[in-house]
Write a structure and sequence with these properties.
- α2 (about 25-40) crosses α5 (about 95-115) and α3 crosses α4.
- By secondary structure, this protein is mainly alpha-helical.
- The protein has helices spanning about 1-20, 25-40, 50-55, 60-70, 95-115, 120-140; strands at about 75-80, 85-90.
- A two-stranded antiparallel sheet has the order 1-2.
- It is about 70% helix and about 10% strand.
- The protein has a single domain (about 1-140), classed as Winged helix-like DNA-binding domain superfamily/Winged helix DNA-binding domain (Arc Repressor Mutant, subunit A, Orthogonal Bundle).
- It comes from Streptomyces natalensis ATCC 27448.
- This is HTH marR-type domain-containing protein.
- Pfam families: MarR_2.
- InterPro entries: HTH_MarR-typ, MarR/SlyA-like, WH-like_DNA-bd_sf, WH_DNA-bd_sf.
- GO terms for molecular function: DNA-binding transcription factor activity.
Amino acid sequence: MARLAFAVNTVAAGLERARRRIPEAAALTVLQVLGWAEREVPDKAVHPSDIASALDVHRSAVTHQLRTLQQAGHVTLTTDPADRRSSIVTLTDSGRRELDRLNQQGLDRFTAFLADWDTADVRTLTELLTRFEESRANVGHPHLDR
């Protein structure tokens, strides 16, 4: 079990280090949250605080990313009519294209990682990682649930 834990933690740490080195990584996570919200809850207005909560980061980090994304034309920020102190964030067509481009870039990297793997091995890894994530989610965070 220790060897498995070490391997999983090593992979997770390596992915996190690589993600931090990618200049667009923070923007990608914000765009992914907006893309998810657009698909899954299309009638719900998305506020910067919703994005911060989904990413488990401070709102100021999201505010900075939203300014950058707005300047690039990837999101629009409008005043929330229900609370004039708050903004509603909307993904633009340009933002959707940027999200697709960045997601494809990530997929291409994973494809390169597994280029010499047998298809059955990739399928098995996918199934096991999915099962692992479901188990992890079911256990939760005991130290945070107190």
